[in-house]
Every structure is written in structure tokens, then in C-alpha cells.
Amino acid sequence: MCSSCSRPVPSASTSPTTPSSTATSPGFALQQLTLPFDTPGELAEAAESILRQFPADEYPHLAETITEHVTKPGYDYADEFKVGLDVILDGIERLQATGFSRVEER
Q1: Taking 70 as the threshold, does the pLDDT of residue 91 lie above it?
Q2: Does the predicted model carry a pTM greater than 0.90?
Q3: C or N terminus of the chain, fewer CB within 10 Å?
């Protein structure tokens, strides 16, 4: 049971939204537990709702991500988290290698 939202914690064998072992951030785990869907059908409903709120002609990249990736079989949100985290960490590593130590105020 999730202590902050009182929802049952989904098992890896039954939920398409369960984080993989590669995504272990506490914030990511909490987000996964509080997503408004647990089944592929609920995911499709959530995707349709988002697309109604953000029309494809105004938000083409969001629409493409939802229709061509998120709603396709085999999509794993945890994989996307890991890719994004790797990009951020690689950028920090490059900054450190150049001797950059803080963000300049503008």
C-alpha cells in the first residue's frame, strides 16, 4: 500500500506502469504509484483525455509521443525515465570536466 495515497502498490507481473529496477529514484517511484492508471485500457483513456486537452495541431510533439510511443505495446515509462536521467547526468559530467562549478546568475 502506498503510504501517501493509500493505493495498492502494483506488482511487476500485473501493472504496465511498475518501475523497472533501472529507475530507482524515490520521486520516480512515487510518480509511478500515483499515475491515474494501472491497465493498458486505463492508459488509453488517460492518453485520449490528454489529447483532448492539448490538440495535435498545437502540440504535435506531444501528440506524436502519445500516439506513436506511449500507447504502443511494450512501452515502458521507466525506460524513458532512465534515458532522461542519463542525458542529465552526462551533461553534468561534461560540465564538471570543463571545470564548470556553478550556474552563473543572469
Answers
A1: yes
A2: no
A3: C
